[in-house]
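Q: Could you fold this chain for me?
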Amino acid sequence: MRAAFFAILCGGLPLQFFSLGKAHGQEAVADAITVSADRLPTAESAGPFALRSLEAEELRRAPQVRLDDILRAQVPGFSLFRRSSSRVANPTTQGVTLRNFGPSGAGRTLVLLDGIPLNDPFAGYVQWNQLPPATLENVIVTPGGGASLFGNAALAGTIFVTSKREEENSAFVQGLIGNADTNGVTFGATLADKPASFSVWGERFFTGGYPVLQKNQRGSVDNNASSDSDLLQLGSEFLLDENTSLKLQARGFREERGNGTIYTRNETSGTDASVVFTKRFPQVAAELRLTGYAQSRKYSSTFSSVNGARDLEIPALNQYDVPATASGGSIIWAMPLGSRHSLTLGFDARGVEGETNEAFRFVGNEFTRLRNAGGEELFLGLFAEETWKLSPAATIVGGIRIDRWQLSDGSRTETDRASGRVTLRSRFSDRDGFEVNGRLGSTAELTRSVSIRAAAYTGFRVPTLNELYRPFRVGNAVTEANADLQPEQLLGGEAGVDWRPAKAVRLAGTVFLNRLEDAIGNITIGFGPGTFDPGGFIPVGGVLRQRQNIDLVTAPGLELSGEWQVLPTVFLNASYIYTRPTIDRATESALVGNLLAQSPEHVATGSIEWKPGRRWLLRAEARYNASQFEDDQNAISLAPFFTVDAAVSYEFSAKVSAGLKVENLLNAEVETGKSGDGLVSIGTPRLVTLQLDYAL
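A: Sure. Below is the predicted structure, expressed as structure tokens.
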């Protein structure tokens, strides 16, 4: 049914825009299309699809310090699983989705750094502290199914992040200090001496953090959620000849976080290495790119149960060792076909292996049970995409991809810690499958001030090892794994218009509709007190959930945006998104008609930028987020919020600048979570940061 509907949806697009292309811009396309094998969106290939690009200068001017907070303010549909900032949030809540399409811990969006996936191999979330804004050249956000080029995990879209690449010798250092015991330093240097160049980037960031529970609910066991992290990246590039290059990159990071109580903490460390070989063929204007990478992660975390007075904290789970690895690569060939067509062909592969080792069931003064769970995943994909420039005013982009996925060696074993007796031994059947996905889009310039576009696409996401095999606990809320989860399947479409009524004004609108089959959600299956299978004992006020497939979710939506250069020194920007991801079909009939958890229907952002003098820049941003449901039952609601961020910067010279950044200027209380027994978690309070930049 999905394939048939996709074919119907796409069938009229080429004919519709072919006629438009002939109607405007009759002149021939004389210049050959320039191609690249990096799979980054180009002016032609991105035309039919929604896209938001943030350049290095925009990242530097932003009032926010961390990249996820910048994107949340600039892209209304960008959301993590919780409303919390990655400054202090547990990494397992940092999965990202776009267009507010049912945020989850695993996320539904693929994040790439220089073409390499950043999503955690075991759980799918993103370590946003790996992406210091000062080290980035640009960030390109493309909501909508990205499976045509990237396959698994690009279901809700793709975020392309590109590191700074200097052509000349250069260096910079950025220091910051702020309230909440916050300080950090980011640095970078490039030695460019053709035919070789070498670069180094790094960051040290620390914040003492802030409480994450409402003030009137805190007890003696509660303290600040905090973060302490380091990152180092080394790179080199060699021009083997005028058309051939070899790029090597390695990075390592580690972080330690306090999670808001005395006992709860987590630690993460990781290393990545990649190699990219690029060969251009001038005689046919083509490019070949070979990429390989390897990633290693280690994670540990502790969880607890706290009594009603919050003066007694009992260990509930100790995830003491969660190792995971990923390796993969791609072969991509890109070439023009005459002056009107360009073709990209490729193959990619990714293998993942991971497990969790944890202690649970705390009795007396010790954990009495041990658990090991994990498995392996393999993804292989072939893809092809063509960009057809019908005329200077009209373009069609079409792509298809075939993926094979495989789950193997899945297991879960639980033992008695004292005797070594096995209390549970589960070996899960190997599974595999094929997925066929694609996208088709067209754009046309009706007049010099009005252009329209339309696109349809499909996507898929195989559940992560974490979703399949690892249960977890947060306070008295327990979520069980499910080894029988099926892949999520997306069918979506959108249409948009871009209007420039005046040189200084741009208005844009997009309507979209997404249809998600077998959506993975945390479904409530019991309330405490009681003993359940699966799940075990759930205390008073506790809730038991299990990851399950939801048969069908539909999400209609609308995006609006506007820009106005009021004066040469004043710039206004505003964006709005409406979306309503509704459960239309589910095994549990009580869920039908409910909204997906963590999905606000309305989000609006706005900003004003004023340059009162050659050296001064003032920027203010506002964000409104409507209420959203905490749970699948739509019984617990998180309140709406309105926040304001602001920044002022001053350039002492071309090399030295300083900025004052204030996040949550009005100190609004943002609800980020609610438990079944009424505990309210809160987000970022007012944070003030002084930043100094120096470039050599």
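A (continued): Residues 2-525+535-584+592-603+610-695 form a domain with the Maltoporin; Chain A fold (CATH 2.40.170.20).
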